[in-house]
Fold this sequence. Notes:
Layout: H1 3-13, H2 28-36, H3 40-72, H4 77-125, H5 129-134, H6 137-152, H7 157-179, H8 181-189, H9 191-226, H10 229-237, H11 241-294, H12 299-309, H13 313-320, H14 322-340, E1 362-370, H15 374-377, E2 395-404, E3 409-413, H16 420-427, E4 435-440, E5 443-444, H17 450-456, E6 457-461, H18 471-476, H19 484-493, H20 497-502, H21 520-534, E7 538-542, H22 550-564, E8 568-572, E9 584-589, E10 592-597, H23 599-605, H24 608-621
Parallel strand pairs: 3-8, 3-9, 6-7, 7-8
Antiparallel strand pairs: 1-2, 1-4, 4-5, 9-10
Amino acid sequence: MSQQGGHGVMRSMVRDQSVLDVRLRGDTTRRVLGYARPYRMWIAGFLSLVVIDATVVVAVPLLLKNIVDQGVLLKDGSVVVRLSLLVAVLSVASAVLDIAQRWFSARIGEGLIYDLRTAVFAHVLRQPTAFFTRSQTGSLVSRLNSDVIGAQQAFTSVLSSVVSNSVSLVLIIGAMATLSWQLTLGALLLVPFFLVPAKYMGRRLSALMSTQMTANAELGSRMTERFNVAGALLVKLFGTPTREEREYAVRAAAVRDTGVRIAMNRTIFVVALSLVAALATAMVYGFGGLMAVSGSLTVGTLLALAALLSRLYGPLTALSGVRVDVMTALVSFERVFEVLDLKPLVAEVPSSVRLPAGPVDVEFDGVGFSYPSADEVSLRSLEAAATGDRAGGGPVLRDIVFRAEPGQLVALVGPSGAGKTTVTSLVARLYDPTVGAVRIGGVDLRQASLESVHETVGMVTQEAHLFHDTIRGNLAYAKPDATEAQMRAALAAAQVLTLVDELPSGLDTVVGDRGHRLSGGEKQRLAIARLLLKQPQVLVLDEATAHLDSESEVAVQRALDAALEGRTAFVIAHRLSTVRGADLILVVGDGRIVERGRHTELLERGGLYADLYRTQYFDERTPA
């Protein structure tokens, strides 16, 4: 057995045996075949080439027999030349077949990867925000990478291996038995000496590789946490680089030591299989040579048997692990299906309508809301710790009724946890109400197309997110076809154009990971510029100035004033001084609207709003 063949067998034997204990769902195979259906003609052509190639591989040793017996021993040069040319033609044909197989395999495999990745990516983007707060990003990315690639192997490497090895095995054993059933039987008696060590070493290598993968995952997570801006800053502030280096070195040493053990076990594995193959070859030459001496076997037959024997044990050992290969691929498919089967809480109905253009009103009609349970919005397998209470919470909003007229500014105030952000989340249709209806322009949002909701409603939160891209790229995310003049107009309205013009690269300046190259106020103003470029008719501002210093707050507030002009807007603010000019102030307490009115009206009533306002006014006036 060649070193390359030994490594091929090893890859088949070291797969995780635990997949055999997994109970697949009844419809998994049917769904897998559904993904293969668009490629059925490609798969048929691919398998045809695999069968032809396996036949060619067996034909060459038989031609070698005739070259020796009918050409060399009989001193017939024409036979030698003719059959040698035929061997050369078959070798070229085998090379062409290998290239064609690789093309078919790549076409099918990459097509399946594309189908699965785009399906999972699009599906995940439709999940509620609670899905992302519970799921580990690394586990989710793994579904898009490792599991998708593992799934496509069902129709490429696994399928081709099963068909090729099965055809090869039948043809090789048939050819050997035809040439000499005695030597064929002797060769098959040595099969256990292949399979037993292969199974043992396969389980050992599988355990070591699992340990190495876990250790590498821990290293990757550690680097991800330390190599972002916030993590690196924390390490520097707490003065722990030396400790970090020491702890990383310990983990890296564990990966190194496991890698050495894997390398040695692999070497022993391949050498052991090669040794058994060499002993089998020696047996064939020994007994076959004696048979040739006695005249019961020709020299050409002996050489053909030896050549066929070298092709026998690889397919045998690979097929012994085919159940693990198939289950590994099916489990990968099932893990992908698990994500695809998690239904989004917010879905578009088939008969959806577009929200009306122009200024619109927003109405809450008897709205109640409870956050969904963990099992409704997430998967246990994607969470770091899927324990604890997974039931849904109690009502967060109760009987919310109000109407914001077109162009009105509505302020939501109240204690933390009262339900203010939940109200704005329903406006943006991040969730659907449990009871009642939310309407924009008279249309129930559950009947509106998601595209028109996203076009109509815009939001700026207290922590504006910017992609690791240029300022131009971040702005274009709101409007891909925006011209530079439109971008500059939005930046000017957001009070940030002067800053951008002062940067060396202007609009092409890269803002860094999460915009960390900019200050908090600058990020907020860029986020507002992005919102203005989108030109939504309904604005939601969730504590957009909460964590800014006084100077930045003034600049952002001016930008907000420009953004709010002529639009229906909802503003959440703990600083009540910023919402005194609101057309309608809704005071939210314990999930209900406990007061409503304008600033002066609410102060005169002496209720919760008045208490909150006086408390803040007293705190601001009290010297530190």
